[in-house]
């Protein structure tokens, strides 16, 4: 059995550690680095092969940061109250305010801490994503981020084992005793003084998705890693962890229906929804496409699509929208007439034409400006389009088929500000700490705002690693 550096590992290499970190993405890596900062010996188990390491984090681009003034990577200022209001709005108030504000305040130090490990950032982002003031973008994206963290972890002496699938956690009351881990087909018993669980949600487990959603989930696509099977989450629940979150809630966006089942990543997202209309397979609109800026509303569209017949939708735009959004990796269907586009998308021609005609007639005069909540709206139709409404009348016409793309689920374990796991009997787990998707449901009861998952993972990863190391030392 080899470590990440090629060193052959003995049984002692697997057993004699202060902190065991289960997971291989952003939160796990932040925990491992933070624990090493405190002098703890750390073993990190990544269930994926080395080439697929990093979990969902490898598909990310940015994290959302509070800041009081312009920085080298963020413009203007983004203060606590505005940040929290954004979180409150998208979650509909389903958030633990104390934990949310704790993350928001701690996010102010994230970019400097990350830079200390070699992470590099792009200059402040412009354009219609409206993120240059709020979100810091990693140079090279999430893959570069996790690669940088892995290199730092190796330099600092973290023992990393790939294809190490934690099957079960064994507790002694509310104390973690050991994990049963499948490594190279052999089940190993691995103990540590403290454990950080940062193994993600259950979004790649089709049986669990069906348990939550029913058969409609068979039409869902998984934007991220295929390795988030939820085994450790299930084991936490079996050991009496206090559960938080709704299993049907998660980060679910509208992605290109032609994307692969797993690991399509961010390039499969369709960002032109606010610039046109979205119809279901019957050719009918079903929601306000211009409700709010895309980074605050894109994550509702996965659930909306999931509720439509066949769990599919279609984004329809015309020539006026071209060049105003980041295109999907797949080219749009293109046609000179709406009739031709309907045929290409297998939509009922007469219904689509009626939908577009009704929409066009309802568009009111206004000044189009995609950088603000403009006054271009409809009147007299249901659903209304409240911003960026323009007639769809300038050929060529374009269409993207849409499916529900699950990024991560919100069901998890309840934690406190020190990332300690709460037990269902009201006690705190003695030596169990959570970070990342497996505890994000404490803060994200529903909805999503761009970059916040990485913020939660970074902040709670650092907290969990530090607290686990402190427990191990004592």
UniProtKB/TrEMBL annotation:
UniProt keyword terms in alphabetical order: FAD, Flavoprotein, Oxidoreductase
Co-factor requirement: FAD
Domain of life: Bacteria
Domain FAD-dependent oxidoreductase 2 FAD-binding: 18-441
Keyword Cell cycle part of the UniProt annotation: no
InterPro entries: CobZ, FAD-dep_OxRdtase_2_FAD-bd, FAD-oxidoreductase_2, FAD/NAD-bd_sf, Succ_DH/fumarate_Rdtase_cat_sf
Pfam families for this protein: FAD_binding_2
Protein name: FAD-dependent tricarballylate dehydrogenase TcuA
Gene: tcuA
